[in-house]
Design goal:
Layout (H helix, E strand, L loop, with lengths): L5 E9 L5 E9 L6 E6 L10 H9 L2 E6 L5 H4 L13 H19 L5 E6 L1 H12 L6 E5 L6 H18 L6 H12 L16 H9 L9 H17 L11 E6 L9 H12 L5 E6 L11 H15 L4
Length: 315
Amino acid sequence: MGSEHVRELSFYLRSPSNNRFYVKRYLPGSGAPRGIVLLITGMAEHAGRYHDFACYLAENGFGLYACDHPGQGQTAGSPEKVGLIHGRRGWQIMLENVRSLYSHIRKDRPQIPVFLFGHSMGSLIARHFAAIYPVYIQGLVLSGSFTMKPLFLNPLKALVWIKGLIEGPDKKSRWLNNLFYGNFNRHFSEKPTRFEWISSDRKEVDAYEADPYCGFDYSNGFYRHLLRGITATRMAEGQLTYRKTMPILILSGQEDPVGHFGRDALKLHKEYYRQNFQNLSLKIFHGRHELLHEKNKQQVAAYLLQWFNDSLQIR
């Protein structure tokens, strides 16, 4: 698939713990890419949503790989199965899948620099991945990332545990989804959908709502895994030993309620600065949570391309 400027391929991989997951790959139409972006998606979305950005990168000399998490997209397999993560290792499985995709890229193209790009929940996975795995990545991009205070996190973990105990871990929870989405949506005066917080572009929000693989309700078990992952990421980042010259870019939307309107991006920047990272960048764009699906997405994509090119020179 693809065009003369883009080579597109879809396939499945298996992690060491035998979890099968779906991958989309985009490469330049000819020649080797200058760099490869391993994109980690957020909650309630899928890799196919990044087609336009992936094609833009491929047309400008970069490859992109993205995978669907357990309970999402083609890894779930059907709209009826989205939102479910079975077993007790949900967060670890997501980390393992990213590690397996990274290993696949390295085996297939060992000389090409790899950037890790995480959006929203994917940014937490990227942060955790960079903290615990001794692998070499050329740079780290954190988009729409967020922090959660223990004052809120600990009671929420207890609530989710009780709901899972009473209802079962596979019970999908509209109530929990509304707790999150409703809190984000309340900041906007017009609310024709539950998803006004993702973008100020009406077409993008409507497309997200109409997509059966987006905006779905997650299970009690998933939320338990997510909250455990937030805690584990915070602990892993307590004292990062990663090379301090690694380029790090933190992106946020000025109107993004998930990241507290850019304030969480500032907190992350200060924390990486405190730990002596030398090539830090912070960029706050006009827009809401999904900058690659915003009205100014072309400006955002061009900024990212320039950052990738500049970061190739840093070792």
